[in-house]
């Protein structure tokens, strides 16, 4: 009977140990899975950041390329769609530039012309691509001659830039109402504060006046407080070896004079 009790106790201990082992194993498996998931998540997060960075760089490059592509373009509004071919459309544009903008323009000055958008009820604007940026700037400089006509010129911007410029117009109007000069340059707003003072205080420190000027009676005191002159560090002669001088005592000098007198007497 005692043996059976001992066997039951041992079995209970084994079962308890097995349960503890299973709990430990479960905890180990849980930690292993969590660590593995964390590593995968960190790897995916890092990969996602790299992809976002590459996407941002690619977007900037595309925007720069599109800006370069459109930099020689101007959009002409208000031209009736009466052309029947490309040559007629180009001829209409050249006539408008020569007649109203007052700049001599020929076929070789224009690279391409095209209507913008699908044909419908509204008159579509014309995108003009000039051969050189310089000629485009000349046209843009004289666009004020179109004020009393049905035509007008604008820059060729991407849709994203146009939307951003519309949003900035509200801020531009607020700055103008406040008395400042504000305008939009591409996709940024430039604000000039017209309320700045005429004279700005210089950041440079003013030169201090001499002590004699500030305190005329203290000239002697100032001279006494002056830094003592620096000692001469020596000339190049001190670096050469000089011959030692022969120093004679008074007795030796007297003896030498006596010897000289006796020699002269003989």
Could you characterize the architecture of this molecule?
This protein has three domains: 1-69; 71-156, Alpha-Beta Plaits; 157-196, no CATH class. It has a four-stranded antiparallel β-sheet with strand order 2-3-1-4. Strands 5-6 form a two-stranded antiparallel ribbon. With 266 residues, it is an alpha+beta fold. The chain has helices at 2-70, 86-101, 133-141, 159-177, 211-214, 219-224, 250-265, and strands at 73-77, 110-115, 126-130, 152-155, 181-185, 188-192. The protein is elongated. The protein is built from seven helices and six strands. 52% of the residues lie in helices and 11% in strands.
Give a quick set of tags describing it:
266 residues, two-stranded antiparallel ribbon, Alpha-Beta Plaits
Task: Please provide a brief summary of the model.
By secondary structure, the chain is an alpha+beta fold.
| Strand-residue proportion | 5-15%
> Which class of the largest domain in CATH terms?
Alpha Beta
Overall CATH architecture of the largest domain: 2-Layer Sandwich
What name does the CATH topology of the largest domain carry?
Alpha-Beta Plaits
Low-confidence stretches: 197-249
Name the CATH superfamily assignment of the largest domain.
L1 transposable element, RRM domain
* Number of DSSP E strands: 6
Decide which structural class fits the backbone: alpha+beta
What proportion of the residues is helical, as a percent range? 40-55%
Task: Summarize the biggest pleated sheet.
Answer: 4 strands, antiparallel
Number of alpha- plus pi-helical segments: 7
**Span of the ends, CA to CA:** 155 Å
Could you state the order of secondary-structure elements as H and E?
HEHEEHEHEEHHH
Rg, rounded, reads 49 Å
Any idea how many domains?
A: 3
The order of strands across the largest sheet is 2-3-1-4
Question: If you average the pLDDT, what whole number results?
Answer: 75
Q: What sort of overall outline do the alpha carbons produce when their principal axes are compared?
A: elongated
């Amino acid at each position: 009977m005692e043996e059976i009790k001992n066997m039951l106790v041992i079995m209970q201990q084994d079962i308890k140990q097995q349960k503890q082992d299973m709990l430990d194993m479960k905890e180990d498996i849980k930690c292993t899975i969590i660590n593995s998931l964390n590593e995968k998540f960190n790897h995916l997060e890092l990969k996602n950041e790299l992809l976002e960075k590459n996407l941002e760089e690619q977007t900037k490059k595309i925007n720069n390329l599109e800006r370069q592509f459109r930099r020689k373009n101007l959009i002409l509004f208000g031209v009736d769609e009466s052309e029947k071919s490309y040559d007629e459309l180009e001829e209409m544009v050249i006539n408008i530039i020569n007649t109203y903008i007052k700049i001599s323009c020929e076929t070789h000055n224009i690279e391409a012309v095209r209507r913008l958008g699908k044909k419908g009820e509204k008159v579509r604007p014309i995108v003009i691509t000039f051969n050189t940026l310089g000629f485009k700037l000349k046209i843009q400089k004289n666009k004020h001659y179109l004020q009393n006509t049905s035509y007008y010129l604008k820059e060729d911007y991407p849709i994203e830039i146009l939307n951003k410029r519309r949003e900035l117009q509200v801020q531009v109007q607020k700055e103008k109402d406040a008395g400042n000069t504000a305008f939009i340059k591409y996709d940024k707003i430039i604000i000039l504060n017209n309320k700045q003072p005429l004279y700005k205080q210089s950041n440079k420190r003013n030169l201090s006046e001499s002590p004699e000027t500030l305190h005329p009676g203290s000239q002697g005191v100032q001279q006494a407080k002056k830094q003592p002159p620096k000692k001469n560090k020596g000339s190049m002669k001190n670096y050469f070896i000089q011959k030692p001088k022969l120093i004679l005592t008074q007795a030796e000098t007297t003896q030498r004079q006596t010897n000289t007198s006796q020699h002269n007497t003989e």
